[in-house]
Amino acid sequence: MLSSFDFTKLNALLKDFYNLTRMRITVYDHTCREIASFPSRVAPVCQFIRSDPKADTACRACDSRACQQARKQRKAFIYRCHVGLTEAIAPVILENEVIAFLSFGHQFAFRDQEEGRREIIARCAGFDLDHTALCNLISEMHVVDETYILSGVHIMEAVASYLCMERMISLQTYSLQAEIDAFITQHFTEDISVETLCRHFAISRTALYEFARQNYGTGIAQHIRDMRIRYAQNLLAADPDLSISRIAEKCGFRDYNYFITVFSRETGVPPRKYRMNRKTSEA
What we know:
This protein is of the alpha+beta class. It contains 13 helices and seven strands. The strands form two sheets. The protein has a five-stranded antiparallel sheet, sandwiched between helices. It has a two-stranded antiparallel ribbon with strand order 1-7. The longest helix has 21 residues, at 53-73.
């Protein structure tokens, strides 16, 4: 069973939610993979905290736990993330299946600025972050109250229902879609292209484009690049003795310089720097 999204309508609705609430809203699929958000960038304080690889890993784990809890209780709930900011998540339920999640976060819900500063600084003590810079970013955040958070949750729940009513999100049982997704997952490090997929599955480029738009929110080539970069990140962290050129080859990049360019563009740092950051954070 796959979830299918109308990204054009979905992105417009997320923008409306943000314009109304000023809360960044994110959509996760049923596997807790982020597929859409508005704005695209996280709040400055979160972006700064996530610059530490250890903190970034903790953020992703926190998101995953929230999705699991939402799936379990099948209703929206409010919680504090691992650095103390308030977040909320709501399941999207269709035909009695949890098929996606909506979430907003980065809310500075404390009694006052000082309480929030102390809480976040204490929770970030184990990360390699500049204390002064973090304090400056915290000072720019605005304190919100419980009423504001609850109102955001109520609107987000309404959005979750509206997604299904307007068919912006739906369940797909068409087996070909599952077969295409499985094929890409199995062969993404190989020399596969749109033409390869069209020939293999005997479908048109237009049909494949529509599949990618609904299931990935991006083109096939970009989706494959994203998978390769995630695989490269795992290899860089897991095997410090594996050369960068060998990692590029294992991930399906035949041109070493192109791999460096793509990796740096997608992650913000070159592979060698990424490995050093991970090694430092785990020391």
